[in-house]
Design goal:
The complex is a heterodimer of chains A (about 110) and B (about 120).
Chain A (H helix, E strand, L loop, with lengths): L3 E2 L4 E5 L4 E7 L6 E7 L6 E7 L4 E4 L2 E6 L4 E6 L8 E8 L8 E2 L3 E6 L1
Parallel strand pairs in A: 2-11
Antiparallel strand pairs in A: 1-3, 3-8, 4-5, 4-9, 6-7, 7-8, 9-10, 9-11
Chain B lengths: L4 E3 L2 E4 L5 E6 L6 E8 L3 E9 L2 E5 L6 E5 L5 E5 L8 E8 L11 E2 L3 E5 L1
Parallel strand pairs in B: 2-11
Antiparallel strand pairs in B: 1-3, 3-8, 4-5, 4-9, 5-6, 7-8, 9-10, 9-11
Classes of the chains: A mainly beta (about 110), B mainly beta (about 120).
Amino acid sequence: DQQVKQNSPSLSVQEGRISILNCDYTNSMFDYFLWYKKYPAEGPTFLISISSIKDKNEDGRFTVFLNKSAKHLSLHIVPSQPGDSAVYFCAASAESGNTPLVFGKGTRLSVIA
Amino acid sequence: KAGVTQTPRYLIKTRGQQVTLSCSPISGHRSVSWYQQTPGQGLQFLFEYFSETQRNKGNFPGRFSGRQFSNSRSEMNVSTLELGDSALYLCASSFRGFRWATDTQYFGPGTRLTVL
């Protein structure tokens, strides 16, 4: 039973355009969400997070949107750059439950120059 | 400051053998978590150690075990290796661990284990 789902295994976007990566979750106890980026031969690195008390969080070119009623979040990258090509993992946690991060299976983003 | 280090980076073993992987967390971090990454399953949580105690355990068989030392370094052991154990094993460290979801986890580069 997958609690965090990233339904698109891969995504290709042209340089300069917007990349939108999607993530759905099923556990209503999740109240903190994160995105990690992973390059080959490296560990995942933290990108951006959002608490359930917010519906949007921005950090430079990266914005995460949270729709609690739909149990859906998305990561927007604007503008996309070739260096953004990586695997992006969505992760969720329940702040109050001492539960480990639950990760999605990842989406491979390719930004084409 | 130095990041999370994992040794070895690559390992090849045969079925039935056992293996020990090592993780050195960021200085000052007391929580170390281990994950298994496979193409089909993504990142799956194995266990978390905090101050030498296992605080959380994922849904893996007892062949997977770990420990943490007083300097917060952690080791993971897999006994009686199976072909399906071939994966990238990642460790992540954080200051306080899962009890505070906002405590960012920093990942090491991983150990690529191949079981033949």
